[in-house]
Amino acid sequence: MEDPQLAQATAEAALKVVKLREQQAIDDNDQLATLITDAYATVAVAYRRASTVYRVDEEMQQLGTAAVHLLTMATSYMAAQSAEITPGDDSSD
Q1: Is 54 exposed, middle or buried (0-12, 13-18, 19+ CB in 10 A)?
Q2: How do the residues of the chain divide into helix, strand and coil, expressed in percent and rounded to 5?
Q3: Cβ distance 44 to 7 under 8 Å?
Q4: For the chain, which terminal residue's Cβ has fewer other Cβ atoms within 10 angstroms, N or C?
Q5: How many CB atoms within 10 Å of residue 14?
Q6: First to last CA, the chain
Q7: Do residues 52 and 11 touch, judged by C-beta distance below 8 A?
Q8: Model pLDDT for residues 4-59, shown as the tens digit of each residue
């Protein structure tokens, strides 16, 4: 599969996840869930736009890849922070 095809497939998969997460949303105030959904939406838009650029502009390809890595790190960090807070919350005792 060529890079533009892979980018298009990635965009479509991310968009499916966004639609599914929106349908299953339980709590609109869940910041982590919103962040994750927004991250998938960002990936969908970025890869859809990048799918045509990848063929002609290697610098844009590298920039897109860096953006996805940054987003992945931010999502992992937020999940780790949420996990640290949730298990230690014994305020209901």
Answers
A1: buried
A2: 75, 0, 25
A3: no
A4: C
A5: 20
A6: 55
A7: no
A8: 777 778 888 888 888 888 888 777 677 888 888 888 888 888 777 777 666 667 77
